Amino acid sequence: MSELSVDHLLGIKYLNEADVQLIFETADHFKEVINRPIKKVPSLRDITIANLFFENSTRTKLSFELAEKRLSADVINFSAAQSSVKKGETLIDTVNNILSMKVDMVVMRHPNPGAGVFLSKHIKASIVNAGDGAHEHPTQALLDSYSIREKLGDVAGKNVVIVGDILHSRVALSNIFALKLQGANVKVCGPMTLIPKYIDSLGVEVETNLRKALEWCDVANMLRVQNERMDISYFPSTREYTQQFGVNKTLLDSLDKEIVIMHPGPINRGVEITSDVADSKQAIILNQVENGVAIRMAVIYLLASKIKN
After folding, report:
1. Residue 87 annotated as lining a ligand binding site
2. Per-residue pLDDT tens for 106-160?
3. Domain Aspartate/ornithine carbamoyltransferase Asp/Orn-binding, which positions (predicted)?
């Protein structure tokens, strides 16, 4: 069996294309498992995983926890969003306390970019980055690409537009890395105030007109407007944002082709997309959620198999 080229999943930028394909093939297998009457496999019975969430996240945390339990791992949950863990030093203290309980793997979400990399240099466990600030969110990008592959047969050569708050989004950055790695064409679309200055260096085009972007793409990934990360006003009002960059059913139906609509969740219904778009047959938002468990099972399984060796 081939194995991952990395010992941690810190970001998509550390993976190669073979890693991504291996994760997808492993996820195919686990997707079949989670659709069986008995959804568990004993693969990781002797592995202990700590989920450290220094930032609130219901969906990602649930998805990881479910993936870990489906693999029969022992799971410790640590929610530090409310605790006083804010400094790098106390991050190591917290983790060392948890490692003294003999933990093999740490799944961590942290508000500081690079927290996972920092941790991987200081502790012996395998690290999975579940989101570090506005930097990367690798498992989300993997499940997004996997969902495109499932719907359209392949990611290579597809036109994908990422719409919305690119500046504050770790989902956007990880998705750009993952899609480019697999040979997709990527554009971003949103208010210029929410497009980062370095976007050109990623080999991505900017399209400020939503209609043009939708006419070009096969897939539109609609990002949530991250009000909680905005310390200043980046656009006049939510209503104005929706008028320019929101997708409704009328707009969708007026295109001369059927495009795929994705959303990392949670949806601000009526802001990025209307309810009738979210619930339409073109949206694969619920497939993304189901695929999230299979992808996270694959990542954990592949990293754990390197621990055992």
Report:
1. yes
2. 999 998 899 999 999 988 899 999 999 889 999 999 999 999 999 999 999 999 9
3. 157-302
Q: Is 60 annotated as a binding residue?
A: yes
Between CA 71 and CA 2 the distance in angstroms is 19
Residue 13 marked in a binding site: no
Q: Does the annotation flag 211 for ligand binding?
A: no
pLDDT > 90 in the chain, percent: 73
Is a pLDDT exceeding 90 seen at residue 286? Answer: yes
For tokens 């208010």, name the residue: 191
3-state SS, residue 12: helix
pLDDT band (50, 70, 90) for residue 70: very high
131 labeled part of a ligand binding site: no
- Given this model, what pLDDT does residue 209 score? 97
What domains, with CATH codes, occur in the chain? 12-136+290-308 (3.40.50.1370), 138-288 (3.40.50.1370)
36 is in an annotated binding site: no
